[in-house]
Write a structure and sequence with these properties.
The protein is of the alpha+beta class. Helices cover 22% and strands 24% of the residues. It has a single domain, classed as CNF1/YfiH-like putative cysteine hydrolases, CATH 3.60.140.10. A hairpin with a 4-residue loop joins strand 7 and strand 8. Helix 3 runs parallel beside helix 6. It starts with a strand and ends with a strand. The structure holds zinc ion (ZN).
Length: 258
Amino acid sequence: MHCTTDGELKVFRFERLATEPGLAHVVVARPYNYAPHRGVGRENALAARRRVCELLGMPFDRLTSPSQVHGPEVLAVEAGDVGRGRDGRQTAVPFVDGLICDRPGVPLILLSADCPLVCVYDADRPAVGAVHASWRGTVAGAAENLVRQMVRVFGSDPGRLLAAVAPSGGPCCYEVGPEVQRIAEGRLDCSEECFRRRNGRLIFDLWAANRRQLMNAGIGEDRIELPGLCSICDLRFWSHRRDGDEAGRFALFVGLCG
Ligand SMILES: [Zn+2]
């Protein structure tokens, strides 16, 4: 990813997606917290969201968000959904972790503190989608479902999609208990690639698991950007694993240019 700074604001952009003229996106992280409902600095989250929308040239009023319940569900943004979740989780589109959208000028926001945020872009339609793929969402197939919804709703050709996975807990740090592996083994077809033992610790490689799902859904490996930035050991990001309940949330903003 490219990283630029604007005052204290650090702005990360995926290298391939940044070259797409029809798409606006950023990942933004510490010191600002983009979640109004939790973590240090939450009282300034709406101001921070507004500032990023201005940076993107997108209307803050139309900022739209899924409620993020650690599941695999993805819905298309309908007219009545535009602006839901702009001011916080209580008004976000319920029951879903991902949204897809073919409406220009509707920025989506997804929040994370270690969970992968997976983004896909169809320049042909055009349409965009993003999903919060926590370990539970990853095991439940969130990224694969994201692509399938793009195909089903927008007629996207998966071979033409571009995908990217935002900074998140990496295989250097993301330790889990044996139950997670046992649950995942029944659901994922990549258990050897996804789980390994290191120094007595069991590591869940969320990046490999999400890349595998995107590939299973038809996206070529060379069209998937994995920046390799781990939110747990890279202090520029918020990390629930590292900071506990005080952790803020970093955010992916993505939308079609108006
Ligand atoms: Zn790490």
